[in-house]
Every structure is written in structure tokens, then in C-alpha cells.
């Protein structure tokens, strides 16, 4: 496990995390967020809100790991769930399923039409 030691303001600036200091309360003011970083050091995902959903954090880590962590089942789970930047959470990727189902329907219908056209052509040519 690696830990970062150094200037926190440089890190927060590099990843775009904004915060401020409130002298009246002697506290830092900031949003509740988790930054998920890839092994190469690139920012992969922001997870906002408290409490953080364990499943969202797990999926974000698996996604950032690029297949180096997690099980095959976890990676298959990521096919069904996608990150929604509006909500800051992983949600069921229904639109992906609908697109895949629509594409499959078009292919099947196209194949059926081609099959029927070939049969019709053979029948009109006398069964050759």
C-alpha cells in the first residue's frame, strides 16, 4: 500500500478538489468526496456524497484497476452498471441493454428478411 506525504494543497489542486478554511470555526470546508485514481496516477472517478456506498466504491476501484483487481463477476457486473456523472453513483445501465437489444433485433430481422428473399428467389427460378 502506498501513502502520499507532502503538500496537500498541491495534490488537491492537481486533482481539482476545492476547499476553503473557515477561521470562525477553525475548520476546513469541503464537499464529501472520494477521488479514485488509476495505478498510473490518473484521476478515474469522483464519488460524491456521504455516506459513500460500498458498492460504488468497489466498482470505481475495479474500473480504475483496469481488470487487475476484482473478480470476473465484478467485471461482468460493470457491464450492467455504469457511472452516472449527474448523480455521482453507479446505476443500472439500462440504456446499454436497450441499445444491445435493439441492435440484436435489427440483425435478426435483417437476417430473416435476407433468408426470405433468397427462398423467394429460388422458388421463382424453379427450385434450382
Q: Would you summarize the structure shown here?
A:
By secondary structure, the chain is an alpha+beta fold. The chain folds into two domains: 1-92, no CATH class; 93-128.
Written account of the structure:
By secondary structure, the protein is of the alpha+beta class. It contains 4 helices and 6 strands, in the order αββββααββα. It has a two-stranded antiparallel ribbon. β3 and β4 (43-48) form a beta hairpin.
Which structural class matches the secondary elements? alpha+beta
Topology, number of strands = 6
Please outline the major beta sheet: 2 strands, antiparallel
| Low-confidence segments | none
Overall, the morphology is elongated
- Strand share of the residues? 15-25%
Q: Count every helix, treating DSSP H or I runs of 4 or more residues as helices.
A: 4
**Average pLDDT for all residues:** 82
Termini separation (Å)? 71 Å
Share of helix, binned: 40-55%
Strand order of the largest sheet: 1-2
Helix and strand element order: HEEEEHHEEH
Rounded to an integer in angstroms, the radius of gyration calculated over CA atoms is 25 Å
Number of domains: 2
Task: Describe the secondary-structure layout.
Blueprint: H1 8-15, E1 20-22, E2 27-29, E3 33-37, E4 43-48, H2 54-65, H3 72-80, E5 81-84, E6 89-92, H4 94-124
Antiparallel strand pairs: 1-2, 3-4, 5-6
Keywords:
128 residues; alpha+beta; 2 domains; two-stranded antiparallel sheet; two-stranded antiparallel ribbon; 4 helices; 6 strands; 47% helix
Amino acid at each position: 500500500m502506498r501513502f502520499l506525504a507532502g503538500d496537500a494543497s498541491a495534490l488537491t489542486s492537481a486533482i481539482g478538489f476545492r476547499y476553503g478554511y473557515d477561521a470562525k470555526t477553525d475548520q476546513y470546508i469541503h464537499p464529501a468526496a472520494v477521488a479514485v485514481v488509476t495505478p498510473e496516477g490518473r484521476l478515474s472517478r469522483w464519488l460524491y456524497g456521504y455516506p459513500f456506498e460500498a458498492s460504488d466504491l468497489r466498482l470505481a476501484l475495479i474500473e480504475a484497476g483496469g481488470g487487475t483487481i476484482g473478480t470476473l463477476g465484478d467485471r461482468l457486473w460493470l457491464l450492467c452498471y455504469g457511472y452516472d456523472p449527474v448523480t455521482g453513483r453507479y446505476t443500472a445501465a439500462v440504456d446499454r441493454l436497450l441499445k444491445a437489444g435493439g441492435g440484436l433485433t435489427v440483425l435478426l430481422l435483417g437476417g430473416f428478411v435476407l433468408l426470405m428473399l433468397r427462398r423467394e428467389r429460388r422458388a421463382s427460378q424453379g427450385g434450382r
